[in-house]
Amino acid sequence: MTVLYEDNHIIIVNKTNNEIVQVDKTGDTSLEDSLKAYIKEKYQKPGNVFLGVTHRLDRPVSGIVVFAKTSKALTRLNEMFRNGEVQKTYWAIVKDRPKQEAAILEQYIVRNEKQNKSYVYNQPKANAKKAILSYKLLAVSDRYALLEVDLKTGRHHQIRCQLAGMGCPIKGDLKYGFPRSNPNGGISLHARRIQFVHPVSKNLIDVVAPCPKDESLWRVFTQD
């Protein structure tokens, strides 16, 4: 975890791809707990530290996560995420070059909670939710491609299953069809950039997260 931006109301961090945002059944230390400890120590705060989770990233995904440090910011950020007022851009290293260099994927996703997996369909189905993203090709190598993904809806494993559905599973993502895991146990999906109007000051927040340093392909594709 690295802090990318902080003020009195919000804190934005760059999550590694082995950290969990909130405590889960594994019992591992969460990003939420680590940040509370960081704030308590930095500002010498007595008692409990308030920290609100505004959105989540899957454990194997790296990149930007936004937390609220005040209840006012949390309420407004929750509403902004719900209303699509937060612009999120992801980078993904995928198997093979997509057939189109840029496209909008508008499909339907059904979540299977027992499997913790989502399935993508081109036509509406029972219990399906509409899933929309756009992507463009940024770079290619012999076996991989770097895609920039603009997420329009926030469905369960949306980027992972939609990219796999077009024949381009994310590197390391065994769950969605990539043949091998990454050495670090993560997948090559990175929440690269976030843009929104600050919930209190109304200034434009525009934050970019450096790509992981432990994955050689990120260094091949990017200048980070």
Any overview of this molecule?
This protein has one domain (2-221): Pseudouridine synthase (2-Layer Sandwich), CATH 3.30.2350. It starts with a strand and ends with a helix. The longest helix is centred in the N-terminal third of the chain and has 12 residues, at 31-42. β3 and β4 (62-68) form a beta hairpin. With 224 residues, it is α+β, with helices and mostly antiparallel strands. It has helices at 31-42, 71-82, 158-165, 216-221; strands spanning 2-6, 10-15, 52-53, 62-68, 87-95, 102-112, 117-121, 129-140, 144-151, 189-197, 204-208. Helix content is 17%, strand content 35%. Strands 1, 2, 3, 4, 5, 6, 7, 8, 9, 10 and 11 form an eleven-stranded mixed β-sheet that branches.
Architecture blueprint of SSEs:
Elements: E1 2-6, E2 10-15, H1 31-42, E3 52-53, E4 62-68, H2 71-82, E5 87-95, E6 102-112, E7 117-121, E8 129-140, E9 144-151, H3 158-165, E10 189-197, E11 204-208, H4 216-221
Parallel strand pairs: 4-10
Antiparallel strand pairs: 1-2, 2-4, 3-4, 5-9, 5-10, 6-7, 6-8, 8-9, 10-11
